[in-house]
3-dehydroquinate synthase (Flavobacterium piscinae), 355 residues
Amino acid sequence: MQSIQAGDYSIYFNEEAYVYLNAFLIEHHYSKLFILVDSNTNENCLPHFLSLLATENEIEIIEIESGEAFKTIETCVQLWESLTELGGDRKSLLINVGGGVITDIGGFVASTFKRGIDFINIPTTLLGMVDASIGGKNGVDLGNLKNQIGVINSPKAVLIDTVYLETLPQNEMRSGLAEMLKHGLIFDKDYWQKFSNLDHLTSDDLDELIYRSIEIKNAIVSQDPTENGIRKALNFGHTLGHAIESYFLENPLKTSLLHGEAIAVGMILESYLSLQKEFITHEEYMEIKTVIQSIFSPIIFEKKDMEPILNLLIHDKKNEFGKVQFALLNGIGQIKINQHAENQWIMEAFDDYKR
């Protein structure tokens, strides 16, 4: 697959990724290589990566616990301390091997250690490949509030190797599909329609879908790297989805949701808001709802869940002047940004979701 140019870095695929990486390491003469993994990728992905890494650099492996619960400033402090104790300097390179949590936190730690060291993202989950590792957003959660602390800073490269997907459970694969569905809904109707029947999907098909998804995200980000305009389109499904994800993360009576599971609900809810504003037809809304619900199991919401979820919307980082901002569909394949919705419509969207 041909590499994709993304601003001041490139995205490389499969075998070409390691050819690029090994040549890059020879060229740049880093003082030390640090590889950041979590407990899952250390066991399942790191051996494959190391077998293809050709370098004489000194390598240090740093492992953190896996999961969104560890995407915190406290974990960053531990990582900054580890880099310091292991002799990291401004000529060090941090390679992030893992899912969205690893690339988000690794990019943030690298961007702030010694006022910034180079980093490379090697996403090992579908979600990481098509979304989290692309676009330069790096950061951590503040308590249960998603991605409140962070920077926009590009890696030196992103390396996509779909072999890592063989290590994923099915729920993690579905989580990544949510972002791919989103890319079709906001940008490419033909791409969206490819997800109406996934029964006969081959590995080659998946590679092509991943490639197109990355193309779509990169096309949007390239127009608006700092999210002052069209990049807000990527927030479709995320305003309510992040609130739901945060609520389920903090509530001890709830089972935490994967990012894509929460975003799938958010896309249905925000499609309903698009319907209420007459931006999409009822037929389009039912098509969206049917396809997403054919992939994702329903999430149970009780009446007592509504108020805390609505309260979490206030903290969404996309808000301006105290108003909740939505990116809503303008037909399948197009988007309207900076939209507002009354709480009553949001409650109706939840009611319709539960039907």
The first strand starts at residue 4 and ends at 6. The domain at 4-167 is CATH 3.40.50.1970 (Rossmann fold). Residues 272 and 352 are 8 Å apart (CA to CA). Residues 203-223 form the longest helix (21 residues).
